[in-house]
Design brief:
This protein is an alpha/beta fold and 295 residues long. Helices cover 33% and strands 23% of the residues.
């Protein structure tokens, strides 16, 4: 099946980045020379995803503004001979076929499952890519891991595929951790997932990343989930699906040659800047030299 749609939630308050993001979405904070959200979109485009839906906080239009042309800026760049500064943005926009912006209003609760409910009409009856707008995938060719997620979905036909990665012990109590089926005839099949377990209770050291293939069945199950700490969580719909005997599988970032890089707090964001900065053809050599001489 040719998956071309993605839903990207960008509605959070990003309290860990306050006061820096008081007046704009944290997804616009740059990683090296592009805002995080552009890197996410370029990843999707690299995987053949051309129809995108952003679910944003209703009082914040800065994400929407970023994807709209700015005639005054273009005039200035043209007059100063700097139009090349927007080349990557123009290239990105030329490849997007359809883009929607849907507000997550106060009528909805919080939780990472809510944007899927907001975008239900956009999703229609199609499987989609679902990914956080503030986490990145480190890979040589943007979109490689999402392509592999789609290939895995088409081969095994689960109702959900979850991108996962092995985690250090300190990170396990803050993540959703998966439990694998002992029978791995279908690679990556799981029989449970536990949200934020104690380290000693964790069923594995493999946690959910931020890339998913989600089918309409998951949307149906989200509608039946009870509020959990006042929020609607995707992982609870996943657990219901597993309990109903439905197939949920995973794909490991690192086994696929990619790495999940969270950017949800200043430290992880800074690490992502260093990793991608070192890979940047123009910035990398100078950054490497600086780090080598840092006391």
């Amino acid at each position: 099946m040719n998956i071309t749609k993605a839903v990207i939630p960008v509605a959070g308050w990003a309290t860990r980045f306050l006061p820096a993001v008081k007046t704009y979405a944290k997804h616009l904070i740059p990683v090296v020379d592009k805002p995080q959200i552009q890197l996410v979109v370029e990843e999707l485009l690299g995987a053949g995803i051309t129809d995108m839906c952003f679910v944003y906080r209703e009082d914040d239009t800065t994400i929407k503004n970023y994807f709209e042309p700015n005639s005054l800026l273009n005039s200035y760049l043209e007059s100063t001979g700097k139009l090349d500064k927007m080349k990557t943005w123009n290239d990105m926009m030329s490849r997007i076929k359809h883009i929607e912006f849907l507000p997550q209003t106060k009528n909805f609760p919080y939780g990472n499952g809510v944007p899927l409910l907001v975008a239900e009409q956009f999703i229609n009856n199609d499987p989609i890519v679902y990914l956080w707008g503030d986490d990145l995938t480190i890979e040589d060719v943007p979109g490689s891991f999402v392509k592999k997620l789609i290939e895995h979905f088409n081969q095994y036909n689960p109702i959900e595929v979850i991108g996962v990665q092995k985690l250090p012990d300190w990170q396990i109590p803050s993540m959703g951790i998966v439990k694998y089926d002992s029978d791995q005839t279908i690679p990556g099949k799981i029989i449970d997932c536990v949200e934020k377990p104690k380290l000693e209770d964790a069923p594995s050291n493999v946690g959910q990343g931020s890339r998913f293939i989600v089918t309409p069945k998951i949307i149906e199950l989200l509608k039946t989930t009870k509020l959990d700490r006042g929020e609607i969580w995707l992982i609870n719909a996943t657990k219901i699906a597993i309990n109903q005997g439905l197939l949920v599988t995973t794909l490991d970032y690192q086994l696929s040659g990619s790495t999940w890089a969270a950017c949800g707090d200043p430290l992880t964001w800074l690490k992502a800047n260093i990793i991608l900065g070192l890979k940047h053809p123009d910035i990398g050599p100078g950054l490497k030299n600086f780090l080598n001489h840092l006391n």
